[in-house]
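STRUCTURE:
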């Protein structure tokens, strides 16, 4: 979305969007306060996102996301955080995470992963990484429509209207390269902690690279095309697994 769009949207909604960014920046607020507010922001956005998406509610998809999501969430060190997972129908593979831990993944990504639980776990854990590291909330509050934050008003109930205006496509745009690679690293850490094969992340990325180079490439859409090059991501993950796996906060080994 362009800055011009957000400028006009900000003028239209500015008085209502003088929000509480300060609450998760303020030294007076506790971590629990910040996470509770972030969850409220995400809940508002998730409600509107569900209206714009065609949710995939078949039993196999729901069971897959429930099982993998549960295992990954159990390994998040900060137990104040919660995560919710849903799949939607789309012609292109896509996934995005909302503040507060609401993760949406297109069903065709699961098919692209060949229903391999470790490959699906990488996609989910990558999106969880964006939430845990604060990328998801930063993207929302950084745009010019929402960054008119102040201490004046509550945040709930307004961002749904904002998303209705800009469209759910905004949530599917890319993060910075550094943020994407950071989410990859935390994602493979969570995978490993949850008992999934972290090497599956590189298998999936290598297969995507082959598909892009084939004579009849799969239409991968923006989700993969706007991420860093697959070889860069594979190199970053390999380096992390060789030198740093198990040494960062953010994931915790599950209790056996």
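SEQUENCE:
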């Amino acid at each position: 979305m362009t800055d011009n769009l957000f400028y006009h949207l900000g003028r239209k909604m500015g008085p209502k969007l003088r929000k509480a960014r300060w609450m998760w920046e303020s030294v007076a607020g506790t971590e629990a306060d910040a996470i509770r507010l972030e969850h409220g922001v995400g809940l508002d956005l998730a409600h509107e996102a569900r209206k714009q998406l065609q949710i995939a509610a078949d039993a196999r998809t729901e069971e897959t996301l429930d099982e993998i999501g549960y295992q990954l969430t159990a390994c998040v060190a900060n137990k104040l955080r919660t995560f919710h997972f849903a799949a939607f129908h789309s012609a292109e593979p896509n996934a995005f995470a909302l503040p507060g831990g609401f993760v949406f993944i297109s069903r065709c990504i699961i098919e692209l992963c060949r229903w391999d639980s470790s490959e699906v776990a990488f996609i989910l854990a990558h999106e969880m990484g964006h939430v845990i590291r604060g990328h998801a909330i930063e993207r929302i509050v950084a745009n010019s429509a929402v960054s008119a934050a102040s201490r004046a008003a509550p945040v709930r109930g307004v961002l749904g209207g904002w998303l209705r205006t800009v469209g759910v496509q905004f949530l599917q745009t890319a993060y910075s390269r550094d943020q994407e690679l950071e989410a990859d690293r935390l994602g493979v850490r969570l995978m490993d902690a949850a008992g999934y094969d972290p090497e599956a992340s590189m298998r999936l990325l290598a297969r995507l690279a082959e598909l892009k180079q084939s004579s009849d490439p799969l239409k991968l859409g923006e989700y993969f095309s706007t991420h860093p090059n697959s070889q860069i991501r594979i190199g970053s993950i390999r380096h992390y697994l060789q030198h740093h796996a198990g040494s960062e906060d953010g994931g915790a080994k599950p209790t056996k």
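REMARK: Strands lie at 54-56, 84-89, 95-98, 102-106.
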